[in-house]
Amino acid sequence: MKKALITGVTGQDGSYLAEFLLEKGYQVHGIKRRASLFNTQRVDHIYQDPHVQNQNFVLHYGDLTDSSNLTRILQEVQPDEVYNLGAQSHVAVSFESPEYTADVDAMGTLRMLEAIRLLRLEKKTRFYQASTSELYGLVQETPQTETTPFYPRSPYAVAKLYAYWITVNYRESYGMYACNGILFNHESPRRGETFVTRKITRGLANIAQGLEECLYMGNMDALRDWGHAKDYVRMQWLMLQQDQPEDFVIATGKQYSVREFITWSAKELGIILRFDGEGAQEIGIVDTIEGTDAPEVNVGDVIVKVDSRYFRPAEVETLLGDPSKAKAQLDWTPEITAQEMCAEMVAEDLVVAKRHALLKEHGYEIPVAVE
Ligand code: NDP
Ligand code: GDR
User: Fold this and answer.
1) Could you report the per-residue pLDDT of 7-36, keeping only the tens digit for each?
2) NAD(P)-binding domain: from which residue to which, for each copy (predicted)?
3) Which residue of 13, 233, 235 sits with most ligand 1 atoms within 8 Å of its CB, as the best mutation to test the pocket?
4) 3-class SS at 144?
């Protein structure tokens, strides 16, 4: 039985990857940070009682800022494959906590690689690094490929630049099977609530059900190449199954604006939106209502506004990936379109919003967290 170790197992990708590897017959080990709450919502459905013998999904307490625990876990598990997905992954937050972001995202990657080397696992253990399209930042060429020059635009991206190169360096210096997946944005119903797609689908579902009044947005002109996390974790595994370690761009090759994503999400709820005004004055107004999913919304309501707090000190305006290498060498193509993914996210957020609305109607209001 193959063993995989996943850092960031409680995150969006970690949870899908754990499911995927379990289905392939792996024993999956995950590193989980200590928190004051369980914080295992995304993996609760595959969680196994630690008192049961022969578990194939095992959680270990650990942190990417702590070499000694990483070394201990690696020694104990002796994994065939390591997926380094753990990170402070929010670009805007990295401007607020730049040093912590560097410690986890840059130094954390070095700590993992160095622990593998010191334990003499470099010939046994294959290493996947969660690299990112944010490396391209101020883009030097469109679409972006494996050879497009990097120009990071945030403390997050600069930390991930270090992680990218230290992964290449350990591959070249020590003959490790180590590779970078340069993944463009990927989303799902498990996406963190403060990333833009989930903020939109959840916010609009709440507005439709009368739990929130308005969605406050930053730069709605930003263009992204959005795929589905399920398609992307399949690719992470494929990258570790090749004869030679190489780096790959993973993207859909299609690009949409944040405003378009808002329009699609609203339409899924039967709300046809009209945008008016410019810059900080731009608003989204309800133009037409179809169906019964938005009982608390009226024609003429302003349900989208711009709030400058969501603008970043330096923005990545446009990203568009060219996944040709992944298609040619790994026979990988994304199966879920951005529109299909948006519909799935809205549908799941609407179920939750309806449940909350029902509780509220019966006097059991649960506060809805909003960023
Ligand atoms: P999430 O933010 O959903 O998950 C991040 C995971 O990292 C969580 O499990 C989190 O734990 C964990 N983590 C954070 N800090 C530490 C730490 N100090 N020690 C150990 N674990 C830590 O991210 P995604 O699943 O979306 O992304 C996975 C990886 O891929 C990240 O490295 C991200 O930067 C990268 N990436 C993501 C893309 C995307 O579009 N989703 C695109 C390109 C790259 P906790 O649950 O406790 O917070
Ligand atoms: P990103 O994702 O920064 O690309 O990083 P995010 O969803 O946060 O932002 C995408 C774009 O939307 C704009 N935007 C807003 N973003 C947020 N979060 N909230 C808002 O209100 C808002 N309004 C507009 C942003 O300015 C940006 O241009 C994600 C993360 O998963 C990284 O870890 C990963 O490396 C990259 O994708 C690829």
Assistant:
1) 999 999 999 999 999 999 999 999 999 999
2) 5-345
3) 13
4) strand
Tokens found for residue 143: 């679409």
Indicate the DSSP class of residue 53.
S
From CA 137, how far away is CA 129, in angstroms rounded? 19
Cβ of residue 101 lying under 6 Å from some atom of ligand 1: no
Q: How many residues does the chain have?
A: 371
| Banded pLDDT at 54 (limits 50, 70, 90) | confident
Distance CA 259, CA 275 (A): 9
Interface pTM, i.e. ipTM: 0.99
**Are 139 and 319 in contact, with CB atoms under 8 Å apart?**
yes
Q: Give the burial class of 61: count Cβ atoms within 10 A of its Cβ; 0-12 exposed, 13-18 middle, 19 or more buried.
A: exposed
Q: Which residues line ligand 2 (CB under 6 A)?
A: 89, 91-92, 132-134, 184-185, 194-196, 199, 217-220, 222, 224, 258, 310, 312, 315-316
pTM for the full predicted model: 0.98
Q: Indicate the residue type of 80.
A: D
